[in-house]
Structures are given as C-alpha cells and as structure tokens.
Amino acid sequence: MPATRSSRRRSTPSRGDAPLRLVALPSYPHHSRTTTGSALRALHRALRSRRLELPVHEVCCYPADPASVEAWAERIGEAIAAIPEQRRHSAHLLFSAHGLPRKLVDRGDPSPAHLRQTIAAVAARLETPLTHSLAFQSRAPSSELALTRLGASGSVRDLVVAPISFFAEHLETLDHALREHAGAFNDSSRRSRAWLDGLLAAASGDAAARRARLACPRTGA
Description:
Order of helices and strands: HEHEHEHHEHEHEHH
Distance between the termini: 24 Å
Strand content: 5-15%
C-alpha cells in the first residue's frame, strides 16, 4: 500500500538498529483484508527482503477501544454543539465508511461487524444523542443515496457527517465528503489526547490494552 511504502522509505529498519521487537500498528481500527491485511503483508515482505528476523507484535483491530471511542465522540460532539439547540431534535448523524466489495463481505471479512461495533459504542457515548445511520463512500448503501433520502424525508434539518473508517483520513474520504456532502461536517481524524492514548495502549500490548478490547473480537488474538 502507498502509505506503507512511504513509511518504509522514511524509516527503514536495519540490523544496526538492534530492535528487540517491532510493533505494527495500522491506522485502521476495523480489520479488513483490504486495509489491515494489505499493510501487514507489505510489512512482512519488507522484513523478508532485508532478512530481518525479530518478533512482530501486530495490533489486529481495536473497534471498541474506549480511548478511541472517546476521541470520536468528542469530535462529533463538537459538531453537534455547533447546531442551535432548538434544531438538534431534527439533526441526524451519518457515519460515512470505506466500502468493501460484496464478495469480501460474503467471505466473512470482519470489517462490517467492526464498524457496527464502533458506531454503537460512539453513539452510546454522545452526550446529545442523535438518530444515526451508516453509509459508504464507494459502495451501497452509498453516502449520496443516504443524503438524498434524508433530504427527501423532510424531517432532517441539520446533518453531521463523521468519517469512521480511518484514524488518518486522506483526500479520497475528506475531499469527497467536503465537496459532496451537505450539512455539518465533522473531521473525526483530528488529533486528540484520547486518540493518542488509545494508540499508545494498542502499541504497548499490555494487559490494560487487552482489557480495553483492543484484541480482535473475531479471533480473540
């Protein structure tokens, strides 16, 4: 993947570094063959090409990590607070996620289940609950279709759009949302202390992180 190749160019591990172990922390909280799987496979190819043998701690997924959920809820809450209080009853929260090919979903890719887990946790954490739904940027149900239906309903006056797939958003998601989505837009990828705490706990692999359900809920690893 481009991001993985870019990271390797900036910091190439070598025997001279004498690392005791390597922590692989994907910026995808939801495991999928197309994201986490691709990044980890690229990492192991890089290690083999350099003949580096050392323990690798892989952070598989962390869809319900409390610190990460807190970070999302904090940013979404800021967007909700910008809506006049008298209109919040008619506001809607649209989670916008990276879509997967149907064949991968049918084969049991865990990403959809992980997304639902994150959304349920974030929605429960919001101080001002809103009706909410999930749409996808490039698959059905598409974000465009969801917006059309919400607009046609006549009951939604304000919209908060929250990208939910990646911690590090990029042009495909942010530019698409900013140009195509109407209403209030919330950039949930901005840094926050809670977000950093969550990544630190995941990378440490300590007992507290495992109690926070950073292990993959599908495999338990």
